[in-house]
Amino acid sequence: MHTNHFARKLFLAAPLCLFAVGCGGDPMMDGSMTGEGATEAAAPSAPEDAALGTSEQGIGLGGTYWWGTSANGLTSTTIGTATNRTCFLRGIRGNLKGTSWAGAGVFQYAGNWEIFINQSNSKALRTDVQCINTATNRTPEVSWYDGQAAKLLGAVTSARRCFLTQVEAAGGFTANADYARVWNDGYNWYLGGNLGAAGGARALCVDVPSDAGGWLWIAGNPGTFTHNLAYNPGGVACMLSGIGGNFSTSDYDDGVTIDYNAGTRYWEMTVSNSKRGWGNCVK
């Protein structure tokens, strides 16, 4: 089965020495990464449903990272401890299309978080990761693949929030209708989706006191736009709860990503070329 093959390849290989760093840049000493693929998003106008209260809140940001390469094989690097700290996807950009598995995101290994790209397509592929300073009631990571029923992540509680950690594909994520996401029905949290070919995603949950809103943005084709998510009075974090669309372009800027705009104090989502992104914010 492709699920076992990919998991075995990933976890037996990790951690590897650094093959390629951020499309030509080096990891920065302040806990973030940058490189030639980094761009600034244009400041958007605020949607009516993006306004939040301005009271202070308590979630601590635990580092913002990105990793991109066209090198084949597993390339990964440690981005810090998994103790009292949880990391999630905030972006996938580039090419997931190929005849064998490609994947990107973040995973735990030997007490740390590792950001990774794993592919054999020789195409540009990039992932963006946001860490938050909590591991309270963190659930085990769950994987879902095309053709499976939605997977249970855990019961709904007043504080539980769930986000993606990885996406994987071997033919999936090549059509506009393809997607994978987490959601809750008021009783339980689930990971699932709809893919026309092989692929899937992984997710986990952690307790965060407050929900700061959720959004779905879809880009036209062709086209790229940036739109506001939550306003940040201090301590708000936003991550991906789902992605969808055709990820078959070898371009580090073509995809779905969430970034923070310090000039406007809004979290923003940028979406390109028929792709869609589900983003949720916590505080």
Quick synopsis:
This protein is mainly beta and 283 residues long. Helix content is 4%, strand content 52%. The chain has one domain (2-37, 47-211).
Uncertain residue ranges: 1-57
Secondary structure category: mainly beta
Number of domains: 1
Number of helices: 1
Q: CA-to-CA gap between the ends?
A: 39 Å
Strand order of the largest sheet: 1-6-3-16-17-14
Helix percentage range: under 10%
Shape: globular
- How large is the radius of gyration? 17 Å
Number of strands: 18
- Give the ordered list of helices and strands: HEEEEEEEEEEEEEEEEEE
Strand content: over 45%
Signal peptide: 1-20
Keywords: Signal
Question: Would you kindly provide a written description of the structure presented here, covering whatever features stand out?
Answer:
The chain is globular, with a radius of gyration of 17 Å. It is 4% helix and 52% strand. It has one domain (2-37, 47-211). A hairpin with a 4-residue loop joins β16 and β17. The chain is mainly beta and 283 residues long.
